[in-house]
Amino acid sequence: MSLLPSAYAALEPFATDWALHTTAERAAKRGSSTEAERQALYAAVMPVAAQALSELDGKPLASLDASEKRLLDLLLSFAHVSLAVELQRDDEPQHAVFRQRMLVTASPADKAA
Q1: What's phi and psi for 18, nearest 5 deg?
Q2: pLDDT tens series, the chain, 113 aa
Q3: Which of 61, 77, 82, 110 could disulfide-link to 18, CB 3.0 to 4.6 Å?
């Protein structure tokens, strides 16, 4: 059984660890991941992110099936990781220390899910 829609089968290896349901879970995963793990997720998702977002954007959240919800969660983790990879780069470990002190417990996006 596939975790993601068939068009995104190449992302399956990341689905279990990175398709996390809440903002707090995604922030914690980003903070506990290695640079290599973040780079791997970024490299895998970046080429298909726009297409995936376009497909999901055309559907109401309530109508997404389980694999589409998982893809959305994976894309939200990708957004967290993109900040680390594209902007913070070598400074990411310093930012991780602050995230450990100021924990995300919930976000408005969590209420919509």
Answers
A1: -110, -20
A2: 789 999 999 999 999 999 999 888 888 888 888 889 999 999 999 999 999 999 999 899 889 999 999 999 999 999 989 887 876 556 555 555 555 556 666 666 666 55
A3: 77
| Residue 80 belongs to a domain | yes
Biggest alpha carbon distance in the chain? 40
**Contact 46/75 with Cβ under 8 angstroms?**
no
Task: Name the residue range of residue 50's domain.
Answer: 6-112
Query: Is residue 49 one of the residues assigned to a domain?
Result: yes
Residue 26 CA to residue 79 CA, distance in Å, equals: 10
